[in-house]
Amino acid sequence: MIDARRLRTLRAVADHRTVTAAAAALYLTPSAVSQQLTALEQETGHDLLARDGRGVRLTAAGEILLAHADAVLAQLERAEADLAAYSAGIAGEVTVAAFATGITLVLAPAIRELAVTAPGVRLKVLDAEGDASLPMLLDGQADLAVAVEYRGAPRAGDGRLTRVPLYAEPFRAVLPLGHPLAAGEGPIAVADLAAEPWIGPYPGNPCHDVVLLACEHAGFQPRLVHSSDDFTAVVALASAGAGVALVPRSALRGADLSAVAVRPVDSDLATRKVFAAVRAGAERHPLIAPVLTALTAVAERPPGG
């Protein structure tokens, strides 16, 4: 018999590439992880891991078992959801990892919604960058993630996750008031900003990927002179004439826009796609299902609705 707990350990090692990192994600010691992997190899009769530099990689047998592990773990999530639904009463806590504007736009309104529709469900909110919430979900640190698409994210067809689309948010060009393209109201071409100095998030931030993709599609690599993950600071730098930027529309709320021009752009790629995600099978859990319903209801309302 293969122990399902050891399958979780194998998945963690596959995700994190080192025993030490997997142990940290699982709140175990590295020796405990090594012991579980050794036991799993004995259970299956195959070597599942091989050293790869300072880390490890899965062998062919390990890859085969991992594919089955994802299906087994998803089915266990469904079993737990069905048992929880069978239990009398729906009350408990759901931990949600979400980025700041996602908290503002959908998560905080969803808490108000749940107070009416599912008062027994309590949310514990963890502020996490858009590229951090999915690893937290997969590592078991969160029950639900509000996340954005980014390079390197698990793909939409990843069997470990169930996704629920929430909203797509356009980016806006932020220009110093003295910029030649500052006047007017219609969309401006991203290509027209090719020669400008740019202000933007650091690599690794999903918004950096959106900016890079929109510029690459327009035929150039942006010359990123100033870097900040704080969009209030990005707007302030643009106000000072330090460069131009693409900023998610919601991130402009509360920023001082008195010394900048905010213009739409001609690129459909300059869009932040936001979705909720849970571990596959957990969408049926009686505590998680109402949260997904509330998030979807909030996201479908018009702004201010």
Description:
With 305 residues, the protein is an alpha/beta fold. Helices cover 40% and strands 23% of the residues. It contains 9 helices and 11 strands. The strands form 3 sheets. Strands 3, 4, 5, 6, 9, 10 and 11 form a 7-stranded mixed beta sheet that branches. It has a two-stranded antiparallel sheet with strand order 1-2. Strands 7-8 form a two-stranded parallel ribbon. The protein is globular. The N and C termini lie far apart (54 Å).
Write the layout of secondary structure elements.
Layout: H1 4-16, H2 19-26, H3 30-44, E1 49-52, E2 55-58, H4 60-86, E3 92-98, H5 100-117, E4 121-127, H6 133-138, E5 144-148, E6 161-176, E7 197-200, H7 206-217, E8 223-227, H8 231-239, E9 245-248, E10 260-264, E11 271-279, H9 288-300
Give a short account of the largest sheet. 7 strands, mixed
Q: Which structural class do you get from the secondary structure elements?
A: alpha/beta
Mean pLDDT: 90
Helix content: 25-40%
Estimate the global geometry from the Cα principal axes.
globular
**If helices are DSSP runs of H or I spanning 4 or more residues, what is the number of helices?**
9
- Unreliable parts: none
- Percent of residues in beta strands: 15-25%
Rounded radius of gyration (Å): 22 Å
Q: What's the β-strand tally? A: 11
Instruction: Please report the distance between the alpha carbons of the first and last residues.
Output: 54 Å
Q: How would you spell out the order of helices and strands?
A: HHHEEHEHEHEEEHEHEEEH
